[in-house]
């Protein structure tokens, strides 16, 4: 998608601090980190939000979630705990309309969120 910030990171049109990549998934550091680890895990294919997911995307969504857990494990905070968040649309504060799973970890996180 031509105007999508995260598609541009996938296509190397703008730089990203990439921490993981495979055929379908990219993970990179959030530019404005809210925790010692704040990684965004995205499908390489442009999908706007959870509202646009189709049954055929189930495997891809599972890969995003399992990648988050794998990064948490690699970094040593899986057992202690971490947070994963998909913001969807305006009321949740989704600012980039390309599905991204936030992985936050490395500190104690409060709940409920704002
Ligand atoms: P959301 O508010 O859920 O849509 O999250 C979008 C996230 O993208 C925010 O946490 C931003 O800090 C992050 N972000 C925006 N631009 C970039 C960028 N160029 N590289 C990495 N992260 C970005
Ligand atoms: Zn996109």
First-to-last CA distance = 31 Å
Average predicted local confidence, pLDDT: 97
Q: Give the DSSP E fraction (strand runs of 2 or more residues).
A: 15-25%
| Order of SSEs | HEEEHEHE
Strand line-up in the sheet with most strands: 1-2-3-5-4
Indicate the low-confidence ranges by residue numbers: none
The helix count comes to 3
Ligand species: adenosine monophosphate, zinc ion
- Helix content range: 10-25%
Question: Care to count the β-strands?
Answer: 5
Largest sheet report = 5 strands, antiparallel
Written account of the structure:
The protein is of the alpha+beta class and 114 residues long. Helices cover 24% and strands 22% of the residues. The protein is built from three helices and five strands; from the N terminus they run H-E-E-E-H-E-H-E. Strands 1-2-3-5-4 form a five-stranded antiparallel β-sheet, with helices on one face. Strand 1 (18-21) and strand 2 (25-29) form a beta hairpin. It starts with a helix and ends in a 9-residue tail after the last strand. Bound molecules: adenosine monophosphate (AMP) and zinc ion (ZN).
Salient structural properties:
114 residues, alpha+beta, five-stranded antiparallel β-sheet, binds adenosine monophosphate
């Amino acid at each position: 998608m031509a105007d999508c910030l995260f598609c541009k990171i996938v296509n190397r049109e703008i730089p990203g601090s990439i921490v993981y990549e495979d055929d379908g998934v990219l993970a990179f550091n959030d530019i404005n980190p809210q925790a010692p680890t704040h990684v965004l895990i995205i499908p390489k294919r442009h999908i706007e939000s959870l509202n646009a997911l189709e049954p055929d995307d189930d495997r891809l969504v599972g890969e995003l979630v399992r990648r988050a857990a794998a990064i948490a494990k690699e970094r040593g905070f899986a057992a202690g705990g971490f947070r994963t968040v998909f913001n969807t649309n305006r009321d949740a504060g989704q600012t980039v309309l390309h599905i991204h799973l936030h992985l936050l970890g490395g500190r104690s996180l409060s709940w409920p969120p704002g």
